[in-house]
């Protein structure tokens, strides 16, 4: 099965990957005084005592009776047994991972298609993670499986199961037999580490790992790829592939598609530059493309998505387009490329997926989904593949199409899933089939006379409703940023919204790594924010105000992928300020339209979104009444030295380089705090076990703000849960309840 996300974009042309080797001390930017470096010892006794003291203080503030009701309502959503059990097909079975109240760590299970279609499928439980954790005394978190393709065409049986001991990115990989429902005695069992695993054959794995003395990159990821034979240790495995220490990570993987078996290695130089090699005759052949052109192979085809405009033999292909070439012809030197998709000012490619005979493109047009079906067997008038728009995407919704099982030799090989969602539309799962239309006309569900592709699809499952969606309206607006760029945002509010500036409003954003924020149904947001009601607080002019609910807003700022690579690159490194100007423009637009006001407006973000709202806190405090800042980057001088921070230099720049620190310091919230500023109420939250961003930056920011005497600064650190901040539904409900309750207390009162 081949489903490919549109990868993030490259560095600007005048930037390069960090030079290898140590820098001379005189060439390194000086570090500002940091009184909180002691908090960087993540598991130190004194440091954890500080964390526990902070947690107790925050719990005393937040965990009142109203909080308990919010948390219970969220947990009911997360534990609902009526929600869709999403499945993936392997052979004749449909696999699912499921969490609920009785199984907080989850069940890995499978069923048949006939059973899945019923209201209560009969599930065959393969692995009970709660029982495993209890038996082994480890708080295991399930991170997925990778099956061995059976060589003889029999049913899938062996799989490598990935388990994290604390919810972090480091996994233990263990061989599992789905027929006996047990881990294979004496089977593959790789120590916990960051990396990846791919089956080469029944007795051999391709592994990238940092365990057993294998080297790590400066970014903390695997530097080598090895061939691990059954019974070997990683230390004794044959090393196949190695990258420089200052590159981000190495990966080796095997494509086991029958008739197209290939082994690849990828040198991820940074987030947006990579080099891919193919193993031929026991040596690596580098696929000749610029490092900022993302490639994927599928049977006879090699697909390309350039992150910058790409000149091939005098033909310029724009960034964000999708191109195709015959795999073997391209390796032989032919440079004849087919154009499958060209972006425009409103439309971008988000991902693609192959069925047996067709290619599905998932697009965004002004942040609403559009799906096109391409038929490689039918060229269009311009030499590409005939394209049909799939009739399945209502406005202001997110709809994704991907193959059910493109390697199924029967008619199911052209089946596809459709997952559709909207802010007030519970998620639906639809299954469809693509095929040539005998009449050339449209068939049920879509197709067109011009394309000759017929689509038949029908709804399979629908998520339950968790709030009264009919009472709410979704609108899309466009704010104007400082440089004149129009920035879209979604607003979800009651149909009787009064534009008097008094509505508690939660503004969410991300703006980084070419990640798109799209419409999505959230029973949690419905219950914890939209349906909560104020107590009739008085308005600014003293008039009595009616009770009102919350407003939820999602901003599609630059740095994200909503409009493709150019939208992302517009806010890279020295241009980072554009993402923050965009977000501030949305805040100002909400205020000018009368939706809210400074004291009623809060913002929330996590990870890179935590850096975003950290800059709202420090650069635009006059716009917000409260800030909820989760698992954040905040100390941009030392971020490259903390957890996996070095891997993000391509996004933010290298603070050790004086010229780059000059612009990075302008968006480093830890260094932008000043005395005498009226800051919004602030809640900073993180997780001890987060091995991606880590808890350190959040700790230091809270400590500095409190030491400065800034009022209403609160901190909470979950002791497990990894970068997600939660490893089960109970922890997730508590995390979401704390953030939402903090914002509501801060914004909805009579202050």
Automatic annotation (TrEMBL):
It comes from the Bacteria. Gene3D superfamilies: alpha/beta hydrolase (3.40.50.1820), Prolyl oligopeptidase, N-terminal domain (2.130.10.120). Keywords: Hydrolase, Protease, Serine protease. This is Prolyl oligopeptidase family protein. Residues 430-441 have a biased composition (Low complexity). The keyword Aminoacyl-tRNA synthetase does not apply. Residues 546-747 form the Peptidase S9 prolyl oligopeptidase catalytic domain.
């Amino acid at each position: 099965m081949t489903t490919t996300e549109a990868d993030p974009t490259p560095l600007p042309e005048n930037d390069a990957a960090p030079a290898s080797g140590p820098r001379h001390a005189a060439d390194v930017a000086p570090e500002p005084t940091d009184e909180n470096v002691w908090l960087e010892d993540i598991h130190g006794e004194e440091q954890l005592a500080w964390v526990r003291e902070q947690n107790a203080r925050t719990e005393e503030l937040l965990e009142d009776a109203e909080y308990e009701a919010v948390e219970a309502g969220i947990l009911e959503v997360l534990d609902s047994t009526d929600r869709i059990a999403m499945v993936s097909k392997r052979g004749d079975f449909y696999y699912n991972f499921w969490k609920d109240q009785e199984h907080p760590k989850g069940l890995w299970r499978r069923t048949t298609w006939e059973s899945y279609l019923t209201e209560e499928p009969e599930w065959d439980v393969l692995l009970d993670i709660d029982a495993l954790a209890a038996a082994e005394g480890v708080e295991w978190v399930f991170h997925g499986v990778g099956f061995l393709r059976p060589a003889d065409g029999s049913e899938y049986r062996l799989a490598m199961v990935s388990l994290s001991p604390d919810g972090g990115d480091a996994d233990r990989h263990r061989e599992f037999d789905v027929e006996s429902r047990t881990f294979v005695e004496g089977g593959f069992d790789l120590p916990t580490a960051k990396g990846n695993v791919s089956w080469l054959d029944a007795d051999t794995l391709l592994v990238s790992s940092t365990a057993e003395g294998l080297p790590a990159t400066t970014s903390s990821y695997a530097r080598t790829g090895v061939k691990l034979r059954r019974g070997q240790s990683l230390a004794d495995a044959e090393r196949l592939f190695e990258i420089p220490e200052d590159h981000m990570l190495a990966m080796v993987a095997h494509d086991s598609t029958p008739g197209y078996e290939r082994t690849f290695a990828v040198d991820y130089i940074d987030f947006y530059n990579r080099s891919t090699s193919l193993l031929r005759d026991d040596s690596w052949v580098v696929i000749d493309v610029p490092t900022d052109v993302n490639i994927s192979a599928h049977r006879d085809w090699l697909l390309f998505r350039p992150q910058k405009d790409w000149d091939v033999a005098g033909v310029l292909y724009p960034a964000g387009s999708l191109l195709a070439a015959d795999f073997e012809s391209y390796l032989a030197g032919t440079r004849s490329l087919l154009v499958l998709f060209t972006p425009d000012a409103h439309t971008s490619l988000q991902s693609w997926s192959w069925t047996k005979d067709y290619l599905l493109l998932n697009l965004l047009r002004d942040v609403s989904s559009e799906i096109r079906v391409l038929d490689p067997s039918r060229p269009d008038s311009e030499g590409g593949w005939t394209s049909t728009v799939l009739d399945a995407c209502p406005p202001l919704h997110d709809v994704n199409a991907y193959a059910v099982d493109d390697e199924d030799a029967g008619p199911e090989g052209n089946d596809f899933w459709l997952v559709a969602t909207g802010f007030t539309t519970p998620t639906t799962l639809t299954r469809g089939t693509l095929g040539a239309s005998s009449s050339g006309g449209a068939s049920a569900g879509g197709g067109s006379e011009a394309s000759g592709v017929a689509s038949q699809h029908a709804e399979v499952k629908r998520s339950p409703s968790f709030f009264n969606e009919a009472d709410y309206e979704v609108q899309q607006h466009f704010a104007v940023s400082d440089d004149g760029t129009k920035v879209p945002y979604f607003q979800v509010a009651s149909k009787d919204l009064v534009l008097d500036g008094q509505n508690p409003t939660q503004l969410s954003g991300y703006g980084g790594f070419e990640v798109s924020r799209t419409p999505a149904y959230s029973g949690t947001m419905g219950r914890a924010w939209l349906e909560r009601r104020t107590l009739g607080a008085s308005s600014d002019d003293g008039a009595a105000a009616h009770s009102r609910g919350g407003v939820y807003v999602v901003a599609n700022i630059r740095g994200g992928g909503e409009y493709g690579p150019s939208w992302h690159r517009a806010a890279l490194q020295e241009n980072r300020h554009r993402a923050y100007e965009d977000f501030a423009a949305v805040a100002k637009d909400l205020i000018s339209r009368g939706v809210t006001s400074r004291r009623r407006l809060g913002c929330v973000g996590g990870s890179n979104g935590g850096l975003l709202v950290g800059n709202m806190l420090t650069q635009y405090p006059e716009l917000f009444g409260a800030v909820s800042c989760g698992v954040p980057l905040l100390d941009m001088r030392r971020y490259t030295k903390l957890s996996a921070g070095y891997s993000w230099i391509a996004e933010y720049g290298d603070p050790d380089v004086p010229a780059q620190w000059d612009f990075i310091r302008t968006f480093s919230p830890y260094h932008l705090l000043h005395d005498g500023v009226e800051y919004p109420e602030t809640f900073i939250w993180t997780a001890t076990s987060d091995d991606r961003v880590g808890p350190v930056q959040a700790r230091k920011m809270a400590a500095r703000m409190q030491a400065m005497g800034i009022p209403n600064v609160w901190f909470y650190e979950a002791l497990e849960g990894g970068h997600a901040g939660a490893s089960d539904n109970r922890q997730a409900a508590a995390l979401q309840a704390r953030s939402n309750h903090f914002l509501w207390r801060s914004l909805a009162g009579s202050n």
